[in-house]
Specification:
Length: 331
């Protein structure tokens, strides 16, 4: 069943043109001139219920603008979207009962209130049955380990503590879709990991659809099965995260721990990244050299105590997608 359907979704902003000099500034005050900025350029997208989607793109690609349209915060200039059967910008309040959102850069909790008061207010806003709310709150407080912070005003919490409360708050009303815009930005690895686990658990146990934007490779790899990459407001890649890695990740890294110094390494299709008496690190272009042959060559010519094979980091793959020549698509 479809969770999100988007057709030709477009957002153009009118941006005031800055005119030079004092006279220009005064003229702009009286008669401002505008130019057009295309933030989202006719996106088509379908997301099934229960999917975990990474919505990726470089800075300014139009990710947040798309999320804002899908959650009803912004009206599009053109195009159509349906989220759980609702038109987000026309039926925003009805949709709000069924979706949750987390904006890593912006708190949704009341800044001067402790999280427990925000939860309480939200339970009223979402008209939750008292017993359901209390049971859900108990479950989230336990999973996110929120007990020590529940009664501290949000302004006094650390970023990691606050973000755990933010995600818990977004889950309070058991939303069918979670929109996550950079949910782990600025967090340490332990908190990141915790948040990812809980989001995944919710996807697994409650079938929650996850729509994520993130620049964090770990978020993408651990949370999402599908990746859509947009650039200049248009989708330029749509496949599984696995396929994205397989297709674009044609080089592998091999790191050898050596028992004794070896000869200088040479093999067509493999590049030395580091070679010392005890370490040999290589990057293998698997389109030019088979891993089997490279490994056979290594064990034949070197005395190896340990070997690790790794994929390059996700950032490299995404950068690679942005840098691929595109057909059209410019703002
Ligand atoms: N209110 C606005 N008025 C004018 N231009 C805007 C407005 N909001 C966004 N834009 C522009 O639209 C483009 C897309 O912005 P958006 O915030 O959607 O990008 P993003 O992909 O989320 O980027 P980032 O990864 O940096 O968060 C940018 O060029 C931005 O400057």
């Amino acid at each position: 069943m479809k969770a999100i359907g988007v057709k030709g979704l477009t957002k153009r902003f009118a941006v005031k043109r800055k005119e030079e000099g004092l006279l220009g500034s005064m003229r702009a005050l009286v008669r401002p001139r505008y130019s057009e900025k295309i933030a989202v350029h006719g996106i088509d997208l379908e997301v099934e219920r229960g999917e975990t989607l990474a919505f990726l793109g470089p800075n300014g690609a139009g990710k947040s603008t798309t999320i804002k349209m899908l959650t009803g915060i912004l009206h599009p200039t053109d195009g159509h979207a349906e989220v759980l059967g609702y038109c987000p910008w026309k039926e925003r309040s009805r949709l709000a009962y069924r979706i949750g959102s987390v904006f890593g850069q912006k708190s949704q909790l009341w800044y001067h209130l402790p999280p427990i008061d925000s939860f309480e207010l939200m339970s009223r806003i979402y008209e939750l049955k008292r017993s359901d709310y209390l049971a859900r709150r108990k479950e989230l407080v336990r999973s996110f380990e929120l007990e020590p912070y529940l009664n501290t005003p949000v302004r006094k919490l650390s970023l990691g503590e606050r973000m755990r409360c933010e995600v818990a708050a977004a889950m309070l009303h058991r939303p069918q879709i979670l929109f996550l815009d950079e949910p782990t930005i600025g967090l340490d690895v332990v908190v990141k990991q915790k948040i990812r686990e809980l989001i995944l658990q919710m996807n697994r146990e409650e079938g929650t659809t996850v729509f994520l934007t993130s620049h964090d490779a770990g978020d993408i790899e651990q949370l999402c099965r599908r990746a859509v990459v947009i650039n200049y407001g248009q989708a330029i890649f749509d496949d599984t995260v696995e396929a994205m890695k397989r297709e674009l990740l044609t080089d592998k890294m091999i790191r050898l721990q050596l028992l004794e110094p070896g000869q200088p390494f040479r093999f067509a299709g493999a590049k030395v990244l580091e070679q010392t008496d005890r370490v040999l690190q290589l990057s293998v272009d698997t389109k030019r050299a088979s891993m089997e042959e490279v490994l056979a060559h290594l064990v034949q010519h070197y005395r190896v105590s340990d070997i690790t094979i790794e994929d390059p980091p996700m950032e490299r793959i995404i950068t690679h997608i942005y840098e691929r020549p595109q057909e059209g698509g410019a703002s």
